[in-house]
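Chapter summary example.
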Amino acid sequence: MRVSDIAYEKIKMMIITAELKPGQVLVEAELMEKLSLGRTPIREALNRLAWENFVKIIPRQCIMVNEISLYDMESVYQMRFALAPLESELATLNRTEEDLRHLEKNLEALRNESSQEKRVLLDREFHRTVSAMTKNPFLEKEMNNYQDLSMRLLFLNRVSLASIDDMNIHQHENIYRYIRERDKERLMQVQKEHVQEFKEKFI
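The structure predicted for these 203 residues follows.
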């Protein structure tokens, strides 16, 4: 992994988990010190995060963490809902036995974790595994980005973390089952239900 990729992942996770707050001004020197990384990888990471709508770069002024509005989140959920059928079709078509073993480990970790914050991050890993099964790097990138934008909402409203409950785990179990059975129609339905339920709880 390139140093700029490491910087990107670390800064992005700080934004997702609300360690870096919406509207907060980011100072390159402070990020360099905190992450023990050089200016170039930090700058490359920030440019990438700006492209993905996590930060805003105001030329000759500052770099700040993007605010997140209900309108933004509505748009994110529209995209997740629209792309769910394609993700479902490609995941059921292209998944391998190794993919299934990986997803089963994700599911088991999610079942056994009691920490709400860790469950949210395990949910993220579960969905990233599903996206990777599509074997379509462009779709995977888009789905991961929309998933991460959704995660921000949870961490910004920590009361909502408690709503990652057994009902959601049941949906994860069905997602795993339908991918294993290559049942794209049922997978598509449960994926849409999962997104819709998430939206109704947190918007």
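To summarize the output: The CA atoms of residues 71 and 203 lie 10 Å apart.
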